[in-house]
């Protein structure tokens, strides 16, 4: 797509310019897409000006001195209450008269706004519903009506002319403020009681409880509260200028509402609690369930501060603050693992039997076990004892300065600890000094995992030293500094109590962040020396640390937002694909109005709000403040697809690697309140890691996987990601300044480290020359017989040992249950129509999901000459339909009058067909008595083996009842590999009997009854799948591999025994894998090699189809190898796909968190307000510097579409 793709299509532009005036005015719809009678507009105008009319009555009576201010305000409020009640009564009457139910606000479809309404007269139900839709809940009818009266009364009191003249001393200014203030009040009243407009500041996708109408009145009440405090409180002189300024801001409230600067109520509440929790109480943003967990954590933390205020003893305050801060900093989500249950803290990882968990359960820190409890208890006791003893013996020592006091040695120790921790953290990453220069100590060249680990040993030693200093030494040093602080003598002060609560908790919550803040305070005190800093020294150390933390956070946000702003400005011109026709004009405006742009960046940093680039153009707005997570819903939502399983598989190994990275500091500095988003780049995919919060000795993060099938936009950005990582990791030795400088510093991505992660490598090969080679096809029949014999013997061995077959043997076949117990249950309980369901993906499931009008596979004449043969309706399916007690399958209808001979007898010689047998269809065929056919072989269920050990290898009686003529089996007897049978029998005999004599083994091999049994079963299976003659068609091989077996004489018998059917299908897939390997690596040279190869297939391979459940389970269980046969319909070729599990180096980098938040804010505005859901819109196009497309994809649904999203993962860092 070009750079001048429309920001909004024509329909959306028309929709937007109708919606925005409605938002600006609070709800009146003066611009419609059709003609409406004049009274529709007049009615809305009258309702809009009604509050002004009632307020004007009260103001006039007050100015004429007929009523006092209070009574005039009450009169205006009562009049407005009566008018609001009348409007609501009309809305209810119209809803009942029209027989409609009031729609939920915010949840209506966009198309509803475009409906043409037929108006009959000015007070008709249609007119009333159009102007005042009413409320959904009866409680809101009463609440909003009362609030409308209260708002009008207090608003009248707020903007009395006498009051404004007293504030500004000018009648002209007072009149201007009076008029414009009433416009603001009318907008809020209309939004509250008549019709609520769509807000640009939208946090929730749907307004379930009708909270949006309360947003604008709430802000007006905040302004009124400040004015009332100024009227009745004369002890605070600062309220007078504050009231003057707020009256001016009050005039611009409609503009702030229209621009979306002021947050809705839910976002405001959550943002306020999060800011208070982080900066006021020393906590961290909550990672999940913010509605309840954030509120509870805020309440508990606030309760600790209140307790500190009322504790009379300073020693008690120190002990309580130390212990409470330590306990609140723990990750309480691990309490559920106290008893070391066999599960992980990853809620979304449910591994099937046989799969190894991604992280060892014995690894320290992943679960809250005895060792962790012992460590935490020891640290708590030691910290509390240290704080109490130091405060008791040294807390009362008087000193004029820091150097001569008891805090002096500890202060210098903190400086040394910070310097060491900072230096050791800097050398851990690929870049130093804020990502500007390459780290010369970081290993170069990441081609080999082992060599990288060897080169990285020195950094691991440095990381271990840093962990000890940061997580064990530094907290005790900071506790010692705080316990001897002189501000403890000034107890029973709210500021001191809050400051100390935050300081003692921050020591454990975020040790690195607290250490930096404490070092800044120490440096300020050391620089001041004996001098007294007015206003600073009286604050106390706790409040000083609070202010330093707040200042550092806002400064960090400002620098990140400024970098994001420069990136958007510069790339809008330098990147040709981003250079729109308006780029020059926008750059000129930004240059001319640079103080305004800088003010917008500063304001967004001060409010901790995202910097919103409108349509990701250099048009910058202040987004409304919201929690750091940016989304209201719970974490862990995604749009799953078949590729999601690969992220689920590697998440455990990646978590283990990220644990080391977080602990060593290679991912950079992470404050307790920053939104850190990292990008992990794999061979063919990438994922985002959203750092949500910090806990004691741990980090909580969210793993989100992006789709593997990259579009053109994804490819452009992925290529730039690869270039950024290659510049950091793949470049050889670097010399000089230019070679050591980060040439991609302006990019949103900064490389941090390389991690060794167990992931699957994906290799795809075109099978031209293999699957269509006649020599290979002739060899396939022989290999199929050998694989089938091996599987039959192994089945007997597993049955003899009491091991259920599917737990080991079944791991390599598609469609088989992943657990043996499931197979044992489904063997008896599955309906017969599921015979081909488990392994036949291309036939039965396809037909069940397709309609009779769109499925033409039943009558297509397409053959291998023009492409693959479509899935056909096999006789096994027909038989399944005809069986009594089972519902008919939903299959596509054939053409009227057609006979499906092609689908019934595909690829079979006519001479091989027997006379038509009754299939239970009742189509008038003559009945044939199978029991009277003298050629059909009948055997007794008990066989007389010559060797006693042969009973182990006996096959079930039902497997010997194939309805095939003995003469036909005798004709195919040369296809049975007797030498291979004896060899395999000897090897499996050793496995069953252990140390057996040569006579026993010889007796087994010479047992003709056993041999004839296996001959009959193997040849029956061969005939049943139509493989009695050499395979000649690649399409037939593909169909048979997929389990879409064409009808043959013995298919009904084979499909009736599910275990034998699965063994036969598995044997064919094994034989095809043998064909693939021998064509690539050469033929098997000995039976021993073939036997070991089949053992490897069974043990280490999953051979099946990508669409099967077994493929998914094998990936999750980390099967070493997976193989699948596929077909490319566009190219007309067959492909082999091999997945190999191996340890690879993946690159991890940090994204500009403020850039991501800004793009997410624009995404929220664009989709929820402008409804710009065009898949080709400008704001979703590829941007190599901002990584716009990948960032949008990583957003939470429904705005984004990650294919995998984990629950919050806790990474222990100690």
UniProtKB/TrEMBL annotation:
Residues 1037-1206 form the Pecanex C-terminal domain. The keyword Membrane applies. It is found in: Membrane. It is a multi-pass membrane protein. InterPro entries: Pecanex, Pecanex_C. It holds the Pfam family Pecanex_C. GO terms for cellular component: membrane. Its main location: membrane. The chain crosses the membrane at residues 39-58, 70-95, 137-160, 172-193, 245-271, 292-311, 373-394, 586-607. Keywords: Membrane, Transmembrane, Transmembrane helix. Belongs to the pecanex family. This is Pecanex-like protein.
């Amino acid at each position: 797509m070009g750079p001048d793709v429309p920001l909004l299509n024509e329909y959306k532009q028309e929709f937007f310019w109708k919606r925005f005036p409605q938002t600006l005015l609070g709800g009146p719809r003066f611009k419609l897409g059709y003609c409406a009678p004049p009274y529709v507009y007049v009615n809305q105008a009258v309702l809009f000006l009604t509050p002004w009319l009632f307020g004007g009555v009260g103001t006039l009576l007050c100015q004429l001195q007929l009523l006092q201010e209070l009574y005039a305000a009450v009169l205006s409020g009562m009049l407005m209450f009566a008018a609001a009640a009348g409007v609501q009564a009309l809305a209810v009457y119209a809803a009942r008269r029209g027989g409609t139910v009031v729609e939920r606000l915010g949840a209506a479809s966009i198309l509803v706004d475009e409906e043409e309404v037929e108006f009959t007269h000015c007070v008709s139900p249609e007119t009333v519903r159009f102007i005042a839709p009413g409320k959904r809940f009866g409680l809101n009818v009463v609440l909003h009506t009362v609030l409308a009266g209260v708002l009008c009364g207090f608003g009248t009191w707020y903007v009395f002319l006498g009051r404004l003249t007293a504030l500004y001393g000018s009648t002209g200014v007072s009149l201007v403020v009076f008029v414009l203030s009433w416009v603001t009040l009318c907008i809020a009243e209309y939004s509250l009681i008549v019709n609520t407009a769509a807000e640009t500041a939208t946090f929730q996708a749907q307004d379930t409880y009708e909270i949006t109408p309360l947003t604008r009145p709430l802000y007006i009440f905040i302004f009124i509260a400040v004015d009332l405090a100024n009227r009745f409180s004369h002890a605070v002189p600062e309220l007078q200028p504050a009231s003057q300024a707020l009256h001016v801001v009050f005039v611009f409230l409609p503009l702030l509402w229209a621009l979306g600067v002021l947050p809705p109520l839910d976002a405001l509440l959550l943002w306020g609690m999060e800011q208070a929790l982080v900066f006021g109480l020393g906590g961290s943003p909550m990672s999940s369930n913010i509605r309840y967990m954030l509120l509870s954590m805020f309440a508990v933390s606030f309760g600790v501060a209140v307790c500190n205020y009322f504790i009379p003893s300073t020693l008690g305050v120190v002990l309580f603050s130390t212990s409470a801060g330590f306990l609140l900093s723990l990750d309480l989500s691990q309490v559920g693992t106290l008893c070391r249950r066999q599960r992980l803290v990853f809620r979304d990882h449910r591994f099937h039997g046989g799969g190894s968990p991604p992280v060892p359960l014995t690894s320290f820190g992943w679960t809250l076990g005895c060792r962790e409890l012992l460590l935490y208890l020891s640290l708590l006791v030691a910290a509390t004892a240290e704080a109490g003893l130091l405060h008791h013996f040294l807390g009362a020592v008087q000193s004029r300065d820091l150097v001569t006091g008891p805090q002096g040695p500890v202060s210098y120790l903190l400086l040394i600890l910070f310097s060491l921790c900072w230096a050791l953290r800097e050398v851990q990453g690929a870049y130093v000094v804020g990502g500007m220069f390459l780290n010369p100590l970081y290993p170069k060249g990441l081609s080999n995992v082992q060599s990288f680990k060897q080169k990285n040993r020195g950094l691991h030693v440095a990381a271990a030293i840093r962990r000890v200093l940061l997580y064990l030494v530094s907290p005790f040093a900071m506790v010692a500094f705080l316990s001897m602080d002189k501000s403890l003598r000034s107890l029973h002060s709210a500021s001191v109590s809050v400051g100390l609560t935050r300081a003692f908790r921050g020591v454990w919550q975020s040790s690195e962040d607290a250490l930096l803040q404490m070092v800044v305070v120490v440096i300020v005190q050391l620089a001041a020396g004996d001098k007294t800093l007015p206003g600073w020294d009286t604050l106390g150390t706790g409040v000083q640390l609070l202010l330093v933390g707040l200042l550092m956070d806002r400064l960090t946000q400002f620098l990140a937002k400024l970098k994001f702003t420069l990136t958007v400005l510069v790339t809008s011109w330098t990147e040709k694909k981003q250079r729109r026709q308006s780029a020059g004009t926008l750059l000129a405006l930004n240059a001319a109005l640079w103080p305004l742009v800088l003010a917008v960046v500063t304001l967004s940093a001060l409010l901790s709000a995202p910097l919103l680039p409108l349509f990701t153009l250099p048009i910058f707005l202040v987004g409304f403040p919201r929690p750091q997570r940016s989304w209201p819903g719970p974490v862990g939502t995604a749009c799953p697809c078949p590729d999601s399983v690969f992220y689920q598989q590697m998440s455990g190994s990646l978590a283990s690697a990220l644990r080391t990275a977080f602990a060593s500091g290679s991912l950079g500095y992470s404050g307790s309140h920053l939104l850190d988003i990292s990008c992990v780049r794999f061979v063919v995919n990438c994922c985002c890691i959203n750092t949500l919060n910090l806990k004691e000795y741990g980090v909580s993060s969210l793993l989100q996987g992006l789709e593997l099938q990259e579009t053109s936009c994804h490819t452009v950005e992925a290529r730039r990601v690869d270039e950024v990582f290659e510049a950091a990791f793949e470049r050889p030795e670097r010399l000089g300044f230019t070679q050591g400088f980060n040439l991609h510093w302006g990019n949103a991505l900064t490389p941090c480290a390389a991690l060794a992660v167990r992931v699957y490598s994906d290799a795809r090969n075109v099978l031209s020359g293999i699957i269509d080679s006649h020599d290979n096809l002739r060899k396939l029949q022989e290999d199929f017989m050998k694989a089938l014999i091996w599987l039959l013997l192994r089945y007997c061995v597993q049955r003899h040992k009491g091991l259920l077959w599917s737990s080991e043997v079944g791991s390599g076949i598609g469609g088989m249950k992943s657990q043996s117990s499931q197979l044992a249950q489904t063997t008896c309980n599955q309906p017969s129509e599921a015979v081909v369901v488990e392994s036949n993906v291309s036939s039965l499931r396809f037909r069940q999901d397709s309609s009779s009008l769109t499925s033409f596979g039943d009558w297509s004449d397409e053959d291998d000459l023009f492409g693959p043969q479509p899935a056909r309706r096999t006789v096994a399916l027909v038989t399944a339909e005809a069986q009594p007690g089972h519902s008919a399958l939903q299959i596509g209808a054939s053409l009227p009058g057609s006979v499906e001979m092609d689908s019934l007898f595909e690829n079979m010689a006519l001479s091989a067909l027997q006379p038509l047998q009754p299939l239970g269809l009742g189509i008038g065929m003559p009945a044939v008595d199978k029991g009277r056919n003298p050629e059909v072989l009948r055997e007794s269920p008990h066989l007389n083996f010559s060797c006693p050990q042969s009973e182990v290898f006996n096959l079930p009686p039902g497997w010997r009842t194939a309805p095939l003529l003995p003469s036909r089996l005798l004709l195919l007897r040369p296809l049975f590999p007797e030498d291979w049978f004896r060899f395999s029998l000897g090897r499996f005999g050793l496995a069953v009997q252990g140390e057996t004599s040569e006579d026993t083994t010889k007796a087994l091999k010479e047992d003709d009854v056993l041999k004839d049994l296996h001959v009959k079963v193997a040849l029956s299976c061969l005939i049943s799948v139509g493989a009695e003659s050499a395979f000649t068609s690649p399409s037939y091989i593909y169909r048979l591999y997929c389990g879409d077996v064409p009808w043959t004489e013995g298919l009904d018998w084979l499909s009736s025994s599910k275990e034998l059917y699965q063994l036969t299908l598995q044997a064919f897939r094994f034989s095809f894998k043998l064909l693939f390997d021998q064509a690539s690596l050469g033929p098997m040279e000995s039976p021993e090699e073939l036997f070991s190869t089949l053992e490897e297939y069974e043990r280490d391979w999953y051979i099946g189809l990508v669409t099967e459940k077994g493929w998914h389970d094998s990936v999750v269980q980390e099967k070493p190898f997976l193989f699948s046969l596929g077909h490319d319909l566009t190219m007309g070729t067959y492909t082999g796909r091999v997945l190999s599990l191996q340890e690879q180096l993946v690159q991890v980098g940090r994204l500009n968190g403020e850039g991501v938040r800004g793009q997410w804010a624009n995404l929220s505005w664009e989709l929820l307000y402008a409804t710009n859901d065009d898949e080709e819109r400008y704001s979703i196009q590829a941007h190599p510097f901002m990584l716009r497309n990948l960032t949008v994809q990583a957003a939470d649904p429904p705005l984004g579409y990650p294919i995998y999203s984990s629950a919050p993962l806790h990474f222990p860092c100690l």
